[in-house]
Amino acid sequence: MSMSSHLLALAAVAAFALPAHAITFAGDTGSGAVWDRPVASFSGLSAFGAGVRYEVTPFTVTASGSYDFQNTASWDNFTFLYADAFNPATPLLNGLVGNDDNPDIGLSGFTTALTAGTNYFYVVTGFEAAEFGSYVAEISGPGNVILTAVPEPGTYGLMGLGLAAVLLGARRRQHEAA
After folding, report:
1. Binning pLDDT at 50, 70 and 90, where does residue 11 land?
2. Sheet holding 65-73, edge to edge
3. Do 118 and 171 belong to one domain?
4. Pair 141, 63: CB distance under 8 Å
5. Both 131 and 167 in a single domain?
6. What confidence tier does 150 reach under pLDDT thresholds 50, 70, 90?
7. How far is CA 114 from the centre of its chain?
């Protein structure tokens, strides 16, 4: 066996020895907000996907590389991946990839390259408005997948009230000191 054959064999063994990281999480679109979903290519909005329920899971990865996404549900699910930002009012912006059946109804997923440190948004939705419910998603790849929380709208209101109270208190102390 030549030296290049040994190196090739060693590289093949090393590739299979590298640990793959995976995360599995569950969700439910049953009580989710609604949006008008795009088609998988993000070239326009779907004629069937108006007013469908969705759930979004923000995440980052610790290593750049190819990641596999698989979503399993008992209903006709559709999944999308967005980078940097997700706004349901502008569903054609920041979209990377979408998939309906992988390979059958109830399974949706894709494989795509991700960059470490980028904010991603995994969106689970239905093919049409009558399709929603619980699901299980798995993301696997060369790095850790870190789910990040998006504050609920009420949290922003409470943060605003807290900031206003702090500013009011500081202003009152400033006037009392004068």
Report:
1. very low
2. 21-28, 134-141, 65-73, 107-114
3. no
4. yes
5. no
6. low
7. 12
Residue found under tokens 């699901």: 135
Of 17-21, 34-38, 83-87, 161-165, the poorest mean pLDDT is in 161-165
Same domain, 107 and 158: no
CA distance linking residue 172 with residue 178, whole number of Å: 10
Q: How far apart are CA 53 and CA 75, in angstroms?
A: 12
Query: Is there a single domain that holds both residue 141 and residue 177?
Result: no
Helices (H), the chain: 3-17, 153-177
Whether the Cβ atoms of residue 55 and residue 124 lie closer than 8 Å to each other: yes
pLDDT reading at 111 higher than 50 = yes
Q: Which residue has the higher pLDDT, 160 or 176?
A: 176
Give the pLDDT score at 32: 83
Phi, psi of 169, rounded to the nearest 5 degrees: -65, -40
**Residue 12 scores a pLDDT above 50:** no
Name the residue range of residue 169's domain.
152-178
- Amino acid identity, position 27: G
Structure tokens at 7: 């190196």
- For residues 38 and 98, the answer to whether their CB atoms sit within 8 Å is yes
Pairing mode, strands 34-35 and 95-99: unpaired
Q: Are 152 and 32 in contact (CB under 8 A)?
A: no
26 & 53 share domain: yes
